[in-house]
Design goal:
Blueprint lengths: L10 H4 L4 H4 L24 E7 L23 E7 L21 H32 L1
Antiparallel strand pairs: 1-2
Length: 137
Amino acid sequence: MAITTTTLLPAQVQQSFDYRLLSVPTPNLIHSIPAMKKRMPKNGGRVLRMSRYNQLPTSPVPLGNTGITLPSTDLSRVDLDVQMSFYGQYVVINEQVTLQTQDPVLTEAAIRLGVSLNKMGDVKSNLNILENLRAFA
C-alpha cells in the first residue's frame, strides 16, 4: 500500500483560501421588507386576486337604552387582480469537477443564482415603490 503525500494530491486539494476574502459581497435587499408576500397555488395560473376592505366610518352616536336600532353601515370591498410576471436565468457549467468536496462548482452556482434572484426581486420592489410614489406626486 502506497503512502499518500502532499505531492500526490491534486492542486485543488493543496490550496486553501479564506472564504471571507473570496466571498462575493451581497446587498442588504431592503426594498421588499414591508411587502406583503403572496404565494400562488400550484397550477394557479398567472392572475392573483387580492381583496381589500375599506374602512368603516366612525360612529359618534352613543348607544342608549331606548332599544332603537341604529342604521347599518355598508362594508365595501375592492378586488385587485394582479398579473404575475416570471423571471429566471440559468448557468451553463462546462467544467469537470474532480472532487466535489474541494471544488463545489454546483453549490457556488446555486448560491450565485439565489443572490441574483433576490437582487432581481429587490430591483422590482424598488421600481414598484417609485411607480406608486409618482401616482401621489
